[in-house]
C-alpha cells in the first residue's frame, strides 16, 4: 500500500509526525512525504522536521508565499504531476491550511482517495480562510479522521455518510505527549517564574492597523502585572513594522522551535493566543488559555478544557487575567482520546 502525506505549514508538522511514525510498523505500507513549501523559513519548517524527527520530504514543491488564490493554484499545479507519477493508494492531508485544500482538490479530480486528518472542526465563521479550507476538504475527502465528537456531528450535519467518519482523537496531542518529557531539562533562559506567553497571527487580528494596535495596547497593559513573552509570526512582525506600532517592553522573539515553545507553554502562568492548535495544547497541559477570537472551531477546549474566548474585548481580557492572577482560572479536563495514540489508530485503520 502506497500512502502519500502532504504537509505545507507549521501546524501540519506536529500532526503528520505521529501518523508517519505509526505507519512505519506496518511493513506493507510505503510512504511518500510531500512538502508544498507554503512555509519555507527555517524556523517555521526545518527546525520542526528535526525536533519531531520527521524524515526529509521526498518532494518539496517550493511554492512559497502569495495571495490565497495564487498559493493554492501553485500548489495544485505542482502537486498534480507528483500524484500522477507516484500513483498513491491514498493521500493524507492535515488540518486546515491552504496546502490541505489544494492537495485534496487535485486528488478528488484525479480519482485518488483522500484521507483528512483533523476533519470536522468548524468555527462557523466563513471570514476565516481556514474555515473555507475545512469545509471544502471535508466534502472532498473519502475518509475523515476526527479529533472529537463535535467533529462527527458537524460532518453528519453536512451530509457526510457516517461510514466515512472515524473518531481517532487528536494527533497533535500525540506529538505533545511524546516530546513533553524532553522539555523538562530546558533552562528558563532568564525568564521570570510567572509570565504570559503570547502568540498572534490571524489575519483578522493583525492585518488591520487599528485592531492590531488595540491588541498591542491590551498586551502592554497585561505586561504591567505579568512579564509578556511574545514569539512573533513573520506576518505579525511585518505588520507591526508596516503600521509603525510600538511593542514597548513586550519581549518579542522570533518564532520558536517546537520543543522550546512547548516548554514555555507548559510553564506559563497564562497563554494568550489566536492560534487553533495552542487552544488544544493548553487544554491538555491544564494551562489557562485566553483566546483572542470571537469563536473557535475547537469547542471541547471550552466545554472540557481551560480555554476562554475573550475576543477583542480589552475588559474581558482584563477580568479573565485577574482571575488567573488570583489563582481562580478555569480548571479543565483532557478530552477523550487525546491520549497520545491517535496516530496509531489512523495507521491501524489504514493498514488494516
Ligand atoms: C498559515 C495557515 C494558518 C496557520 C498558520 C501557522 C492558511 C490559510 N493559513 O497562515 O491556518 O495557523 O499558517 O503559521 O494556510 N511567511 C514567512 N515565512 C514563511 C511563511 C510565511 O515570512 O516561511 C510570511 C509571508 O509574508 C506570508 C505570510 O507569512 O505572506 C503568511 O504566510 P501564509 O503561509 O500565507 O499563511 P500564515 O499566516 O502563515
Explain this structure:
The chain has helices at 10-24, 46-51, 68-86, 98-110, 129-140, 149-157, 171-179, 203-206, 209-225, 234-242, 258-267, 277-285, 300-303, 314-325, 342-351, and strands at residues 2-7, 30-35, 59-60, 90-94, 113-117, 143-146, 165-167, 195-198, 227-231, 251-253, 270-273, 289-291, 307-309. Strand 2, helix 2 (46-51) and strand 3 form a beta-alpha-beta unit. With 352 residues, it is of the alpha/beta class. The mean pLDDT is 97. The protein contains 15 helices and 13 strands. The strands form two sheets. Strands 3-2-1-4-5-6-7 form a seven-stranded parallel beta sheet, sandwiched between helices. The chain has a six-stranded parallel beta sheet with strand order 10-9-8-11-12-13, with helices on both faces. 45% of the residues lie in helices and 15% in strands. It binds uridine-diphosphate-N-acetylglucosamine. Residues 9-11, 38-41, 44, 65, 96-98, 129-130, 201, 233-235, 238 line the site of uridine-diphosphate-N-acetylglucosamine.
